[in-house]
Design goal:
three-stranded antiparallel beta sheet, single chain, Immunoglobulin-like, 2 domains, 9% helix, 132 residues, elongated, mainly beta
Length: 132
């Protein structure tokens, strides 16, 4: 099995564990907290051994302090940005179609963002992507 991920142990990490398709199902259920385990996933070996568990490998991006303003705008703070990395803020009303709201290069590990058009939508979702 080959795992391609920034969270993979890498370096030709050898494992003697036996994995099946049910291992993938079990791992997905663990990630998303779905219980009870379905069919063979209940007894399958998790793929967790293939991934790093140190905090350095985790993405630290967080959306904090989101608040609707009386003028219809929506404000939030992003934390955990990597200095010098390009960040893209996008919005969607349906989680399928995303529109670009802002692109910037991080000069700090936090960024305040205001969406002046938020009041024009019944619901709006936000995501921030850090470019490689």
């Amino acid at each position: 099995m080959m795992v391609i991920s920034p969270l993979a142990k890498g370096g030709g990490y050898p494992s003697t564990n036996h994995y099946t398709h049910a291992s993938t199902l079990r791992s997905m259920q663990e990630i998303f907290g779905v219980r009870p385990f379905l069919a063979a996933a209940a007894t399958a070996t998790s793929l967790g051994d293939l991934f790093r568990d140190d905090p350095v490998s985790r993405n630290n991006l967080r959306l904090m302090a989101g608040a609707a303003q009386t003028n219809g705008q929506f404000q939030f703070t992003l934390t955990g940005l990597t200095l010098g990395k390009t960040n893209v803020v996008q919005a969607s009303t349906n989680l399928s179609n995303w529109v670009l709201l802002r692109t910037n290069i991080a000069t700090s590990n936090t960024m305040d963002f205001t969406d002046p058009a938020a009041g024009n939508f019944i619901q709006r979702f936000y995501q921030m992507l850090e470019q490689p």
